[in-house]
Design goal:
The structure holds two protein chains of two kinds.
Chain A lengths: L17 H4 L2 H14 L25 E2 L14 H5 L5 E7 L12 E9 L8 H5 L5 E2 L15 E2 L1 H4 L4 H4 L1
Antiparallel strand pairs in A: 1-4, 2-3, 3-5
Chain B lengths: L2 H36 L15 H11 L10 H17 L7 E6 L2 E5 L7 H22 L3 H32 L4 H7 L6 H4 L1 H14 L11 H4 L9 H25 L9 H36 L7 H32 L1
Antiparallel strand pairs in B: 1-2
Classes of the chains: A alpha+beta, B mainly alpha.
Amino acid sequence: MESLSNKKKVLEQKPLSFMERMYLPAIAKGMGITISHLFKKEATVRYPEVEREFSANFRGMHSLKRDENGKERCTACGLCALSCPAEAITMIAAERKPEEKHLYREEKYAATYEINMLRCIFCGLCEEACPKEAIYLDGPIVPADYLRKDFIYGKDKLVEAPLEMKK
Amino acid sequence: MDTGFIIEKFILVAVIFGISLVIAMYSTYAERKVAAYLQDRLGPDRAGPFGILQPLADGVKMFMKEEIIPSTSNKWLFIVGPGLALLCACIGTAVIPWGSPMEIGGKIVPLQVADINVGVLYIFGVVSLGVYGVMIGGWASNNKYSLLSAIRAASQNISYEIAMGLSIIALLLMTNTLSLKEIVDQQHGWRWNVLYQPLGFLIFMVCSFAETNRAPFDLPECETELIGGYHTEYSSMKLGFYLFAEYINMFVSSAVMATLYFGGYNYPGMDYMATLLGPTWAPLFGVGVFFVKIVFFIFFFMWVRWTIPRFRYDQLMNLGWKGLIPLAIANIIITGIVIAIIEKF
């Protein structure tokens, strides 16, 4: 029956010709291809010594940002935790005391802020949800570790270094 | 049989044994490097400069691994298997002429451990013994996959040995001798046997790929079908012995190919070099040439391995029985006729 789409192709398997049955011409051709690769540049990047550059929109480890005066931007509003599809973020909010004015930008701040790096899928929704531009996924690749508890990153690992340390 | 003779042979055996072990060691490294470069990669480059210490690291790893002997295995045979494989691989080097006789302190020393008059037969015997290591290991493991692999190895070796033997017969018609030393000496200068026996060489080479269980005929250890093949149950240095035996086999068969068909230590212009370098250094240069040929064949083994996919088992048997054996017989007939015509006229 004629096919409606006319896209059908009938394939025929022809018996091998004498030259093909000898294998040798095909083998010689194949050997030629492999030997030509001997002289090609290798694709390997020698990783610990050479690092390949990430693309511009690479998302790595999170960092909690500070403002231009070195105060923490995060106000523990919880929008990042709410937006997180993997439920990797938890935090406890606290009220800023008068003597802590130089540490936190607004009256409320995150006393603890934890991201479980095993849950995180690095989608970047927390970054998008944040109204204070406090969290960005601009860090390196999260390193490997031995224990699950070591993958829960607290503020000690997440908050950006203070301004004077940066200089 | 004086002591000088014994010392001389002992040194020669030790040197050859050492060289073949070192070459086997560095074949594992070369295999990985060649594979890498053929696939646009780098290969091992962490241990030492260019990864040159990689084989040592592998050896240490092999020794340090836990040694497991399955409780249901035949313990004695399980231990004998790898040893036999390695032994059979090593003793093949005894009859290979490494170089023309060398003069050391006024004494002529032949660079061959034993010039027996049936050298070719000896090589064949030793090579066919090699399959016992595989068979015993596969049987003693008491594992279905290992046994299947051992059976495959045995039937493959038997099938290809016939074609190999037949291809050699055509060569022997020309040389009239079984002594490897005489066969090499007949190929003085440029008169290499491969020029007179190209078809025979081709058959011999294909068969030696099958005999050494190398790709594309590595069916006894094809991991997609048989897990690891005959050494599935082996661990630690016993596994190391099997892998080592494979590389020594490769070295020996490269040496045999170079000896029988590519003139061994002969090279064009060797008479001129002999007068130039004198009776001590010219043979050593010949040994160097011989090793260049061997290394080329080892590279060729690897080159083929990373080019051609593995044969299916029925294709393997088809090629052996219906392809190579008739071809080898035709080669014998043609060679016989040509020799008869040449002698007549």
